[in-house]
Structure formats: C-alpha cells, structure tokens
C-alpha cells in the first residue's frame, strides 16, 4: 500500500546504510556508481530488504528484450504527473541494482523498475507490483530461440495468479503466451517488426499463420487477443477510441510503441493519455543512446543495437541514403562471444548508404556484408571511419561493448 509510513525495522535500516556506504567506497575507488555492490551488501544483511522497500510503493515492473530502459523512463516521467517516482533509471536491472535504487527513494509513491528478463518472476514475487509492462521477447546474442521460448514459459508460470495488471504487447506471440496466464491483462497493439522468433506457436509448436497484422495457430486455436490500446502511426488509440498524438525526442517506430505501452500503464494509475504523452516529450537520450555528438566536424548519432531485433529496429530509424553509416561489432563477454547472430540480421536494408565497418569483429561483419552484396569499407578505428564521410550527419550503430568504446572515444 502506497503511503504506508510504517518505518523500516532496524535490521533493514542498517542494511540500507551499509549498502550506501559500500556504494560510496566503490565510487571513490572509481568503479562506477556503486549501486550494484551497494545493493549486494544490503541484501546480504537483510535478504528481505527488496520486499520491505517495495511495500511502501506502488510498484511497476518493465521487462523485455529491447526497449525496457527507455520504457521505464517514459513511464516514470508520465507517473510523475501523479506523485514522486523512484526508478532504477541507469539500468541496473537485477535484484541488487533494484534494491539500491529503491533504497534511495523513501519519499516516493511509485517505484518504476526495469527488470532483466531472467529475473522478472522473482522480482515480481518480491515486490508485489501493481502493474507489469511486457514489451517483446526475442533472442539475445547469447540465446537461441529455444531459450527464448523457455523464458516465456518461466514468465507464464511466474505470473500465473498475480494480482498485478499486466500491460502486454498483443502483437508478440511469445509475450501473449507469457501474459495470458494472468487474470488481468490490458493488451496493447504495439506492433512487432522482428518476427523470426515467432513463427511457431508457443502453445503447441504448430506453425503460426500471419495474415496481415493478425496471427494465430490453426492447430490449437492460440491467437492474437483483442487489443484495447493501439499504436497507430504517430498516435495512441485509447480504449474509448480517442487518438492522442505522440511527440517524442527519441527516434523510431519502436519508441512510439514504447510510448503507447507507457500511456496504457499510466492510465491504470489514473493519468490520462494526453497528460502522460505530453510528459514523455521530456525524455531525451538515455545513457548516451540516440545522443548526437560532434566529432571531427561531423555529427555522429550514437545508436545501440544489442541483438538481431534491435539491429532491425535501428535500421528502420536511421536517416535515408546517402547518410553514411558506421557499424561497430565486438564479441566480448557482455556481447556474447559468438557472432553467428550477424547472419540473422537483414543487412540489405542498408543498401545505398556508404558503410564503414569497425570493431573487434569487423572481419566477421565484412564477410556478412559481402555476402549481402553491399558496398563497404573496413576501417582501422572510429577516427578513420569518421574521416571517410563528408561533414554532416553520420549514423553510428554499435553493439554493447563497441558502443562503450565509441562513447569513450567521442567523449560522451
Ligand atoms: Zn498452437
């Protein structure tokens, strides 16, 4: 219950204090924000701390393969119309980082929390959320399709019988499968560009039919539910059929879909779509993603694409040819060390753009582009790639650690 003023027990208070101290030490040592180490220390001292902190809040969880950080920010911004919000805005999305974020928000009414897909069921059990937003599920580099299906199954089991309102994407069959064990679901027609993980029926393994925007299984009858909210071009349609314009500083169709879902979440807390959508305009670049920086007299737009679905969404938002494109791919720990996913991405969408290729795995990428029949240049580093392009806008698309390298080099 929000507004519950019952104080934390002494052990929990000690855990919060010790966690903050550990985070401060970690910061002084130059190891980032310290929120993860702080949260780990806190949970060691009081394993129930996350549940205790959540008890004082109306909790909203957000999970997905792509777009969860952005959507968390959009929902947080929308709900501020109705009360103070605490959020793990920097994307520390496992239990320690979440605990740390909530420990910093004792006056908040809402806790808007991004959750890593693998932790959703556990965090939902601990925090008793009022709402859970589920956007999409597709393979990450580290996973194959079968693991994505297992994740959906885990969500389905974890969310069965939850009291939370689930706000879920009706256009993603895996999301529908995961959410439909819940008694209270608000369906949003948010679209799905990446369909490669959703050709087989999550219920029976049959082949999904996809006439137009609809989908369904002829074998078992599992099918797209009726959506009461929808993304329609640049508008959100609410359950009354009213169309509300979306104005975002963030680019691309995927972010409009995130805005539609966020408006549906805000409405479950009494914030009207018009108010919610107006507030979302305030959200700018998120942890450097979508940022435009000037480097060597060019304007580089920095775009993060972590997995095949993310690459496809990114291709759909870049400026048209002849805008130059720099692609950077690494295969270090956080990226997944296997680059076979490159073959899952349709790079022919880049035809017509001058393309420069960098990163640890530039040769893997070069082979892929060669087979796709694209014209490209392999460059030694960011500077060389940027100099290949004339002054003006350059779209730079990088996977996870390549993106971090890039931001360090261009000073952002
Ligand atoms: Zn089926």
Automatic annotation (TrEMBL):
<feature type="binding site">
    <location>
        <position position="204"/>
    </location>
    <ligand>
        <name>Zn(2+)</name>
    </ligand>
</feature>
<keyword id="KW-0573">Peptidoglycan synthesis</keyword>
<dbReference type="Pfam" id="PF08245">
    <property type="entry name" value="Mur_ligase_M"/>
</dbReference>
<feature type="binding site">
    <location>
        <position position="201"/>
    </location>
    <ligand>
        <name>Zn(2+)</name>
    </ligand>
</feature>
<feature type="domain" description="Lipid II isoglutaminyl synthase (glutamine-hydrolyzing) subunit MurT C-terminal">
    <location>
        <begin position="304"/>
        <end position="403"/>
    </location>
</feature>
<keyword id="KW-0862">Zinc</keyword>
<dbReference type="Pfam" id="PF08353">
    <property type="entry name" value="MurT_C"/>
</dbReference>
<dbReference type="GO" id="GO:0140282">
    <property type="term" value="F:carbon-nitrogen ligase activity on lipid II"/>
</dbReference>
<keyword id="KW-0436">Ligase</keyword>
<comment type="similarity">
    <text>Belongs to the MurCDEF family. MurT subfamily.</text>
</comment>
<keyword id="KW-0133">Cell shape</keyword>
<dbReference type="GO" id="GO:0008270">
    <property type="term" value="F:zinc ion binding"/>
</dbReference>
<dbReference type="InterPro" id="IPR013221">
    <property type="entry name" value="Mur_ligase_cen"/>
</dbReference>
<dbReference type="InterPro" id="IPR036565">
    <property type="entry name" value="Mur-like_cat_sf"/>
</dbReference>
<protein>
    <recommendedName>
        <fullName>Lipid II isoglutaminyl synthase (glutamine-hydrolyzing) subunit MurT</fullName>
        <ecNumber>6.3.5.13</ecNumber>
    </recommendedName>
</protein>
<dbReference type="GO" id="GO:0016881">
    <property type="term" value="F:acid-amino acid ligase activity"/>
</dbReference>
<comment type="function">
    <text>The lipid II isoglutaminyl synthase complex catalyzes the formation of alpha-D-isoglutamine in the cell wall lipid II stem peptide. The MurT subunit catalyzes the ATP-dependent amidation of D-glutamate residue of lipid II, converting it to an isoglutamine residue.</text>
</comment>
<dbReference type="GO" id="GO:0009252">
    <property type="term" value="P:peptidoglycan biosynthetic process"/>
</dbReference>
<dbReference type="GO" id="GO:0008360">
    <property type="term" value="P:regulation of cell shape"/>
</dbReference>
<dbReference type="InterPro" id="IPR013564">
    <property type="entry name" value="MurT_C"/>
</dbReference>
<keyword id="KW-0067">ATP-binding</keyword>
<comment type="pathway">
    <text>Cell wall biogenesis; peptidoglycan biosynthesis.</text>
</comment>
<keyword id="KW-0547">Nucleotide-binding</keyword>
<comment type="subunit">
    <text>Forms a heterodimer with GatD.</text>
</comment>
<dbReference type="GO" id="GO:0071555">
    <property type="term" value="P:cell wall organization"/>
</dbReference>
<feature type="binding site">
    <location>
        <position position="217"/>
    </location>
    <ligand>
        <name>Zn(2+)</name>
    </ligand>
</feature>
<feature type="domain" description="Mur ligase central">
    <location>
        <begin position="65"/>
        <end position="190"/>
    </location>
</feature>
<feature type="binding site">
    <location>
        <position position="220"/>
    </location>
    <ligand>
        <name>Zn(2+)</name>
    </ligand>
</feature>
<dbReference type="InterPro" id="IPR043703">
    <property type="entry name" value="Lipid_II_synth_MurT"/>
</dbReference>
<dbReference type="GO" id="GO:0005524">
    <property type="term" value="F:ATP binding"/>
</dbReference>
<keyword id="KW-0961">Cell wall biogenesis/degradation</keyword>
<keyword id="KW-0479">Metal-binding</keyword>
<feature type="active site">
    <location>
        <position position="338"/>
    </location>
</feature>
């Amino acid at each position: 219950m929000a507004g519950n003023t019952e104080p934390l027990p002494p052990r929990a208070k000690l855990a919060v204090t010790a966690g903050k101290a550990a985070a401060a030490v970690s910061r002084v040592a130059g190891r980032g924000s310290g929120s993860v180490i702080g949260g780990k220390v806190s949970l060691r001292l009081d394993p129930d701390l996350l549940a205790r902190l959540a008890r004082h809040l109306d909790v909203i969880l957000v999970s997905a393969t792509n777009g969860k950080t952005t959507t968390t920010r959009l929902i947080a911004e929308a709900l501020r119309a109705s009360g103070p919000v605490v959020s793990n805005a920097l994307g520390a999305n496992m239990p320690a980082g979440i605990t740390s974020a909530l420990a910093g928000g004792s006056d908040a009414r809402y806790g808007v929390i991004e959750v890593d897909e693998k932790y959703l069921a556990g965090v939902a059990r601990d925090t008793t959320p009022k709402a859970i937003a589920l956007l999409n599920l597709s393979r990450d580099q580290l996973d194959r399709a079968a693991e994505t299906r297992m994740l959906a199954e885990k969500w389905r089991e974890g969310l069965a019988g939850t009291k939370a309102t689930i706000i879920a994407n009706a256009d993603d069959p895996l999301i529908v499968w995961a959410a439909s064990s819940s008694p209270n679901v608000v369906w949003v027609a948010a679209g799905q560009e990446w369909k490669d993980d959703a050709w087989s029926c999550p219920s029976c393994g049959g082949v999904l039919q996809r006439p137009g925007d609809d989908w369904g299984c002829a074998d078992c009858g599992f099918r797209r539910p009726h959506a009461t909210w929808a993304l329609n071009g640049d508008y959100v349609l609410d359950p009354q059929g009213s169309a509300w314009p979306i104005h975002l500083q963030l680019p691309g169709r995927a972010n409009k879909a995130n805005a539609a879902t966020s408006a549906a979440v805000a409405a479950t807390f009494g914030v009207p779509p018009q108010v919610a959508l107006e507030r979302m305009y305030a959200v700018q670049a998120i942890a450097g993603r979508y940022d435009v920086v000037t480097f060597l007299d060019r304007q580089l737009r920095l775009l993060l694409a972590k997995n095949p679905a993310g690459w496809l969404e990114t291709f759909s938002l870049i400026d048209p040819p002849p805008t130059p494109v720099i692609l950077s791919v690494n295969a270090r720990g956080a990226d997944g060390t296997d680059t076979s996913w490159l073959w899952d991405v349709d790079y022919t969408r880049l035809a017509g753009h001058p393309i420069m290729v960098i990163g640890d795995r530039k040769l893997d990428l070069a082979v892929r582009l060669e087979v796709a029949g694209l014209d490209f240049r392999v460059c030694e580093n960011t500077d060389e790639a940027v100099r290949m392009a004339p002054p003006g806008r350059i779209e730079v698309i990088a996977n996870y650690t390549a993106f971090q390298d890039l931001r360090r080099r261009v000073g952002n």
